[in-house]
Amino acid sequence: MTIPLRRPQIEAITVSRTLYQGGKFQVQEDAVAVERPLNIKLAPSESKSQAPASLTMTMRTPGHDHDLVVGHLLTEGIIRQAGDIVSMSADSPQRGSRADGLVVHLDPKIAIESQIFHRYSIASSACGMCGKTSFEQVQEAPRVASDLRLKTDRISKFMAQARKQQTLFQQTGGSHGATLFVDEDLIATREDVGRHNAMDKLVGAVAKRDKSLFSRSVIILSGRTSFELVHKAAKVGIPIIISVGAPSSLAICMAQDLGITMIGFVKSSSFNIYSGEERIIL
Question: Which CATH fold topology does 150-281 show?
C-alpha cells in the first residue's frame, strides 16, 4: 500500500496570546494543536473509469493520516484488514479549499454498498458519530473473546508511560492520545484533536503491523470513554480499555454487553472498574 503525501504534516503551530495574571496583561507566544479537514474518498480499484466518491469529511490533526483512514475504515466495518486497501493517493483540493484529501483505492473484491455514503456528512473532531442519521446506523460489533489478564500494578504504570508518549499534548495541551500495550510492550501512540481520530490512527497503525495483536492488548485513552470508542475497540477485538476520565452510561452498557473490561479515573494508587473485573488480578 503506497501513501504519497502532498505536503508536510504540521501538528502544532505557534500563535500570539495575551495572558492575564497578577493584575497585568502580558503578550506571549503559545503552541496550539492544528485542526484541518480531511476529505476521505473511496474508489473500488485503481481504474479511472469510475470516479471516487466522498465518504466523509473529518476534522483532524494532520499527521498519520494513512493510519487514520485505515483505522476508520476498519472500525466502521468497511474493510476487514489493512490489506483490503490497495493504495492511497492525495486528492487535489478544489480552488480556495482548505481541506486536505485522500483517495482510498480498495481491492476490487471489496463490495462498496451505496448506502454507506449516506451515513456520513462532516465529522467534527469531537464526535465519532456525527453524520449518522440514526443510532441503528452504527455497525454491530462482535463480543470480545480474550483470556487476557492484567495485574493491578500495571495499570498506573501503563498510564504513566502513555502520558510520556503524548508529545503533542505536552507541547500544546490541546490533543487527545491513544496508546496500545501488548504484554509489557508499548506498541504505538497516536494523538489528535479528536478522541475518535486518535483511536482510529492507533488502530490503523497496529492493523498494518499485525492485527492479531489486538486480542492481547490494553488501550490507554487520555480523556473520557464514550460509547463510540468502546464500539471501535470491539470492532477490532481490544479486550481492556483504560482511561484517565469517566465513561458514559452508554459506554458502560456497551462494554458489559461486548465483554470488554473498562477502567476509569486512574490515579497512582486507585482506579474504578466498570465492567469485566474478572480480567484484573492482584
Answer: Cytidine Deaminase; domain 2 (3.40.140)
